[in-house]
Specification:
It is a single chain. The protein is an alpha/beta fold. It has 6 helices and 10 strands; from the N terminus they run H-E-E-H-H-E-H-E-E-E-E-H-E-H-E-E. Strand 1 and strand 2 form a beta hairpin. The termini are close together. The relative contact order is 0.17. The structure holds guanosine-5'-monophosphate. Guanosine-5'-monophosphate binds next to strand 2, strand 7 and helix 5.
């Protein structure tokens, strides 16, 4: 998606530790007109996939997931980051290492909202090492739900998470794909 690349070039900021800051349009302040375009693009990519639910992880995936859900006319479920003591028998849970916070979260979703009848599209803002999406795939398999694919706004390909998921046979669509990122030099993938 060319518009995503343009936004990153104009408004993104490379931080130490391989972090791209997109607080101006995605993570802190949301460019709502652009969010609508993101929703349209995800809906276009996954048209005909039979998706009947979107699953994301709180909190930064929620806006994109909601935009895609509105355009695809499907409900959006978000997995919550809970303490282990809050987990009970009615909940699917998985431990996910957070790239940005450098700690592990016990991520949970109620079994009321994810079932074996669901065909689930996973949505997130970033795909880096793949821990967040792997966790969501795990929650779906606990529920017996089928994964139709994953849509991410920005894939940092140099971290390898996207390609590992593709090797597992999961369809991954990234709206912008970053091949490399150093200091102030950012290169997009040649597709
Ligand atoms: P992964 O689990 O694939 O390693 O990382 C994905 C998660 O970490 C996303 O949910 C996202 O919130 C966060 N993340 C990873 N890399 C970045 C980044 O460069 N910038 C921001 N803002 N978030 C990131």
């Amino acid at each position: 998606m060319l518009r995503m690349e343009e936004k990153i070039r104009k408004e993104g900021q490379i931080l130490p530790g391989g972090i791209l800051k997109v607080g101006n349009f995605l993570n802190q302040q949301i460019d709502t007109a652009f969010l609508y375009e993101i929703g349209e693009e995800i809906a276009r990519l996954f048209e005909g996939s039979g998706t009947n639910k979107i699953l994301t992880i709180e909190s930064s995936g929620i806006a994109i997931a909601a935009a895609a859900g509105m355009l695809m006319k499907v409900p959006v479920v978000f997995a919550k980051k809970h303490k282990t003591s809050n987990v009970d028998g009615d909940i699917y849970s998985v431990s996910v290492h957070s790239f940005t916070h450098g700690m592990d979260y016990n991520v949970v979703v109620s079994n009321d909202y994810l079932t074996a009848d669901d065909r689930v599209l996973l949505v997130d803002d970033f795909l880096a090492n793949g821990n967040a999406l792997n966790g969501l795939v795990d929650l779906c398999s606990q529920a017996g739900a089928e994964v139709t694919g994953a849509a991410v706004a920005i894939e940092k390909r140099f971290q390898g998470g996207g390609d590992a998921l593709r090797r597992r046979g999961i369809r991954i669509e990234s709206l912008a794909c970053i091949e490399s990122m150093e200091d102030d030099k950012l290169t997009f993938c040649q597709i």
